[in-house]
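Extended Data, record FtsQ-type POTRA domain-containing protein
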Amino acid sequence: MRVSKKVFFGIIGGLFSLVLVVGVVVWAVPIFTVKNFEVEGIHQLDAAQVREAAGVSEGENLLRVDAHEAARGVASLDWADSVTVSRDLPSTLNISVQEHRAVAFVKRDDTTYLIDDKGQEFISADPPEGAVELTGGIESGSTAAKDAVSAIAALSDEVRHQVATLEVTDSYSLQFITKDDRRIFWGVSDENNDDKARAFETVLKMGGQEWNISNPELVTTRR
């Protein structure tokens, strides 16, 4: 049976109108409501804190949740570095958080400030295990701070847990001091960071109180 173009386009138009009406109803009437919150990526933050910062309540129309605004609310939390909010029909709001990675800290006026792996201070709090104290008057976000955390981030977790402080005179003079009071001169933070990190791990297994690994291919020591 052949259908005329007029009838065909009439059917298409009717279907389009039906879809449009259904879409408007679903948007306006809370058919898909928020019943569950799925919070991922948190270690320092807790789920209740994240949910509150998102500003979304149970029972809200899931389709009308402003995901951008919810993400902005969670991103205002000190530990939140980046946030993504998405909907999972029929009833779940997903909140994915990437927290700051605290690799270092500084002490000023009896207050401890944590520094992330970008060299930025982001919160005053007790340092987590493995964070290295920076000394030498480091300014947040400065080149020296970024170079310092770049050197720290190159170290393995096992090595970082043995480090007490990193003395920073400038971008060209970085010296690590271990918890057993050994000194390892790193020099400038540069493209050799991975090689220096391997040299650092090696010298920790050897004798000697002072090491120079600024040239990881020519490591020297002064006993």
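Summary. DSSP finds six helices and twelve strands in the chain.
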